[in-house]
Amino acid sequence: MVTRTVLAASLPGESWPVWLALLVPLTAAVMLGVGSRTRDGIGRRAALAISVGAATLALVGVVGTALAHQTVDQPWAPALGIRLHLALDGLSWPPALVACLASLAAALVVGRDDGNDADGNEAGLHALHLLLLEASLVTLMARDVLLLVIALAGVVLPVWAIAFDRSAGQREDRRRTASRVSGSLGSGVVLATAGALVLTSAAGTSSLDRFSAGLVGAPRSEVLAGTVLITLATVLLVPLVPGHTWWTGLVAAAPAATRVIVAGGVLPLGGYLAARLLALPVIHAAGVGPWLAAVAALTMAWAGLAAFAQPNLARLLALAGMVHGAGAVLGVAAGGRLGVQAGALALAVAGLVGTTAFTVLAALERSWGTTRVDHTREALRLGQPRLGRLVVGGLAAVGAVPGTVAFWPVVWGGLALLSEGRRAWWTWPLGVGFAVGLVMLLAVAVRVISLVWASGWTVAMDPTSTVELPRPVPDASGALRWAALLLVSAVIVLGLLPGPLARIADAAATAVLGGA
Amino acid sequence: MSDLLAIGPAALPALAAVLVLLVDALVPGARSRLAVLAVAAAGLAGGLGLALVRTAQGGWRQALPGPGGVSLWVTGPLASGLVLVVLVAAVLAVALAVPERDARWTARPGPALALLLAVVAGAVTAICAGDLITLTVGAVLTVLPCVALVGLRRGERALAATLALLSTAVTALAALVLGVAVWYAATGSLLLAAAPGAEHRPLHVLGFALVLVGLAFMASAVPGHDWTSPAFLGAPAPVLVLLTVVPRAAVVGSALALLPSLDYLGLGPVNVIAVVALAGLLLGNAMALRQIECSRLLAWVSVAQSGWMLLPLAGGPLAGGPQSAEVLLVVTLALASVITVLGGLALAGEVSLRRLTLPGLRGLARRAPVLGTVLSAGALTLAGLPPLTVGMVAKVAAVQPVLQQPGRWWVAVGAVVGFALGVGVTIRWLRFLWDRPTASSSGVEPMPLTRPVPRVHLVVAILLAGLLAAASLAPQLVLGLVGIG
User: Fold this and answer.
1) A150 vs B399: CB contact, 8 Å cut-off?
2) Model pLDDT for residues B431-482, shown as the tens digit of each residue
3) Which residue intervals of A335-467 are DSSP H helices?
4) B69–A contact, CB cutoff 8 A
5) A216 exposure class (CB count in 10 Å sphere: 0-12, 13-18, 19+)
6) Cα separation of A109 and A384, whole Å?
7) Cβ(B49)–Cβ(B133) under 8 Å?
8) What pTM was computed for the model?
9) Nearest residue to A353 via CA among A105, A58, A25, A53
10) ipTM of the assembly?
11) Hey, are the CB atoms on B424 and A186 less than 8 Å from each other?
12) Cβ neighbours for A464, distance < 8 A, ≥ 6 positions apart
C-alpha cells in the first residue's frame, strides 16, 4: 500500500521539470562514477559530454520549475513527518540557476591537469561535481526544513573526496586539507541539523510553508537555542571568520574546476540557510542578528584587507568571495524587508561573481600554469588580449565596480544599514566594516588589474639582451574562453539592468517574509 | 484473540535447532553438512514465512494465555518488524557461513547452526514476551548460545573472548533476574501490562534499572559493553552478523514492552536510558576514532550505534518505539554490509577477521571497487552522511522524540557531539579505503587478496548496499516492508 502510494506519487506528470533538475545530475553522477572505476574508464570527451549534458538539462529543469511554478509534494519519511516537498520560490531560484551555471562552467574547466590521478580519469571529477550540484539543488528546492539540512549534508562527502584525492600536494598535505574541509563542513552540517531539529520541534512542523506560523508562541529558549545553532552553522558554511580556513585552504589546493562549482554551488548554501531561517521575523526577534551581523562585518573588513596583499589569485578570489558572502549575511542579519532584499540579492550575486571569477582564473591558470602574480610574464594586454579583457571584466565584478551586477547588492546593503528605524548604535561599526571591506575589494581589483593586465615585461626590450625570457603563453581559446566570456557578459549586462534585479530582490523578500 | 501461529517464528527455529543436532548425530560423513544446512534453512524459512504473513496482516496477536486472561506472548506491528529483522539476520549469517573456512562451520556445522537457531528463538521470545519470566527466558536463550558460538573457535583469543563474554553475561543475567524479583516485589505481578501500585515507586524504578542493566549487556550498551571488543576480535563473520543484530533487536523489543508500564512514573526512569544512550554513542565513537584493527573499530562503532538505537526511548515511556526500531533496521543493514565485506576480504586474503587493519585496507576502493564502495556505503550510513541519506534520517529519528520533551537539551547536545564524532570516524575510515594502494608512512603494505572474494559475500554485500541506496531514495519503501514507520 505504502509502496504503491509512493510510486504513484513519484510519476513525473506535470512536475517533470523538478525531476529533470534532480534526477539527471544524480544519474549522470552515478554513470560517471561507476564508469570511472571500470577497467577502460570513460573517455575524456564522453565524460565532458555527459557532464555538460547533465548540467544543461538540470538548468532547463530549474528554469522550467521556476517559470511554471512546478511542485513535488509527497511523503518521504512519514514517521518523522518529512515530506519530499520540492519547489523554487523567489529566494531559491536565482542561486539554483547560478549553481547550474557553475556546474556547466566547472565541466568545461575540468582538464587533464586537474588532479586526475594515474589510475583514474576525469569522469570521477565530473561525477563529484555533479553530486555537488545535486546536493545544492535539493537544498535549494526543499520546502521542508529537515529535508533541507539532509540535502545540505550531501556536500560534505564530494568536497572531502576532491580535497583528499584530487588536490595538489603530497599525501600528507592532501590529508590535512581534506581533514580541515571535512571537519569544518561536517561541523557546519551537524550544527545546522541540530538547529533545524530544535526549531522544528519548537514549531511543531518542518514544513517551510507553516514554519513561521508554528514558531509564533514557541518557547523562547528553544527558538534561541535553534537560532544560535543555525548561526554557528552559517559562520562555518558561508564562511565567515573564524570558520573560513577550510575554504581558503581548499581553494589553494583544489582543482580549478572544483573552485568554480564550490564558489557557485556550495558557498551560497550557507547564506541561503541564513536567509531562509534566520530572516524569519520570529527567529530574528531572538536577538542573535546583531552578533551575526558583527561577525559578517568583521569578515568583510578582514577578508578585504587580507586580499590586498595576496600574491596568489586563487586565495585572493577566495577572500573576495568571503567579502561577498559576508555582505549577504550582513543584509539578512540586519533584518527588515530591505535587509532581506539586500541579503538575497547578494546571495545570488556572490555565487555568480564567484563562478565568473574562478572560471576566468581557470583560463588564466591554463595560460600561465600558475595562479600567482609574482612571476615574470608578459602583460595580458599585450600578449593575451582576449584573456586580458576577461580578467578585467571578472575583476571589475569582484571589486563591485559600478556597472557590474555586484554593485547593486552593495547599494542595497548600504541602504538597509542606513534606513530609517535602523539607526541602532550597533549599525555604525557594522557600516565601517561594510565600507572597509568594499573599499578594499575595489582596491584589490584595481591593484590586480594593474599588475596582470597593464604590467609585465614588454616585447620592446633590447633585442641584444641575453636575459632569457619566459616562453610566450597562448591566449584564451576554446569552450572555456566562451564560457568565461558568457559569464563576464552576464555580470556586466545584469549590472546595467537594476530593474530586474529589484524585482528579484523583492520576490526573494516576499518568499521569506510574505507580501507585507 | 489467541493465535498459536504467532509463536511460530520462535518455535520453528527452536524445533529446527533440535532437529539439526539430531541429524548431526545420526547422519554420518559428508552428507551431514548438507542435511543440517537444509534443516536449518527450512527452520529459518518457515519462521521467516510466518513473520512475513504476520507483518502483512498487521494488528495485534496474542498467544499463551496467562493468569487473569493476560497473554504471555504478544506481537504488535513493531514486534513483527523486529522479528523479521532477527530472522533476516539469521539467514544472512547462515549464508555467510557457507564459504567459511573455519572447521566448525565447514566440516561439522551442526553445533554452530543449532546454537544460531537457538539465538534466534531466544531473541524472538524476548521480543514477544508479555511477562518478565518469558522475557528472562528469551534473554538467557539469546545470550548463552552467543557465548558458545564465540567459544566454538579454537585459540587463545577465542578463549579470552569467550571468557569476557561469559563473565559479563553471567553478571548481566544476574542483574536481570534480580531486577525481575524487585519488579515483582514492587508491583506484585510479573506481567508487563500490569499497572503497579503507586506506593512502591522507588522499588519499581530500581527493578527497571536492574532489568535495563541486564538488557544493556545484550545491546552492547554502556556499561554492559565490555565484552564487545574481545568478542568481535574472536568471532568469525557469520557470528558477528548475529551478535550485532539479533540481541539488539531483542533489547528494543523488550524495552518497547517494558516502558509503557512506567508511564505513571513520568520522565524519571527514561533519564536512565538517556544517560546510557549518550554514554554509548560518545564513548563508542570516541574510542572508534583511535582504532586501527577493523574488528575493534567495528566493536566500538557497534557500541556507539547501540546508543543511537536507545536514544529515541529517552523521549518518554510511550514515545520513541518506532524510531528506535527504525534506527535498529538502518544500523542492521549498515553493520551487516560492513561485516559481509570484511568477512569476504578475510577469506580472500586468507587471514582471520581480526587481522584486518585499516592500513591493510588502504586503497581497497581502487583495488576492489565493488567491495570498497559497499564498505563506504555502510560506513556513510553508520555516520549519517549523505548521499546515503537513510543514515541521517535515522539520526533525525533518534533525536526527534527526545527534543519533543521539555528540558532535554542536554541529550540533544550529547547527540550532536556524538554525531560529529561519528562523522570523524567514517571520514577516517574512508581516508584509508579511497587512498592510493601504496605502503603507509609506517611501511604497512596493503593486504594482498590472494583468492577471489566468495560469491556469496559479493551477492549479499551488493544486496545490502542496494537496500541502503533504495532506503536513501525512499525511506518508507524499505521501512514499510518491515512494518516500521
Assistant:
1) no
2) 889 888 776 666 677 888 888 888 889 999 999 999 999 999 888 877 776 6
3) 336-368, 380-383, 385-398, 407-418, 427-448
4) no
5) exposed
6) 19
7) no
8) 0.87
9) A105
10) 0.83
11) yes
12) none
